[in-house]
Amino acid sequence: MPDVSTGDRSRGLLSYLFGPGRRNEHTDPHIVAAFAMPGIIDPGRVPLDEHEAALTDLAQYLDQPVKLRGQRTGKPVPQHVWHCPVRTAPGDRYLTDVEWEHATTPLNVEAGEQIRWLPRCRLPEGLAFPFGGRDWWLIDDRLLAAGHIDSEGRVLGHEVIEDRETVANATILRDHLWSVAAPHHEYQP
After folding, report:
1. Based on the domain organization, do 109 and 131 belong to the same domain?
2. pTM for this entry
3. Does residue 106 share a domain with residue 31?
4. Partners of 117 in beta bridges
5. What is the pLDDT of residues 160-173, one digit of tens each?
6. Do 101 and 58 share a structural domain?
7. What range does the domain containing 154 cover?
C-alpha cells in the first residue's frame, strides 16, 4: 500500500522535500522533469541564502491553478497537495535524471504530448546545436525555454526566449531533428 499523504500547504511540502527529510534521507533534492516553468529556479540548485525565496516562488507558481479553480468555483480547493514517496530498495542503484524523466514520460504521452528522444551522439554530422548544447523546448512555435544545467547535468532553471528570429530558427531545427528522433515508445536510455 503506497504511503500517500494529503494537505493544503504546497510550501510546507516543498520545504520538507527540499530539506534534509526526517532522517537525513534527502541527499540530493532537485527537480528532474517538469512542465515549462519560466523564471522559476530549482530550489535544490540555489545558494543557501536564496533557498527560502526559491521555495516560495515554486509554491506560488504551483498553486496558481488551484487558486484559479477556487476563484471560479467560489470555494477553496481542499487537500490539493499529495505526496507519495518513491524509493529504491536497499542495494538498488539510483536512477539517473534521464532515466527518471524517461520513466515518467508516459504520463505526458497519455495527455497527448508527442515526445521523441535524440541522444546527442546521434545528432546529424555538422549540426550546430543551439544554446551551447543545452536542452530546449519549443512551446506553441512562439516561445522557447532553454535549460540551464550544472556541470553534473542537473537542471538549474530555464530561460524564456521570445525573439521571433531565434524561435523561427529553433522551429526549423526542430522539424529537421523530429524526423531522425525516436518516438518515446521506441527509445531506451
Report:
1. yes
2. 0.55
3. no
4. 182
5. 888 999 999 889 98
6. no
7. 93-189
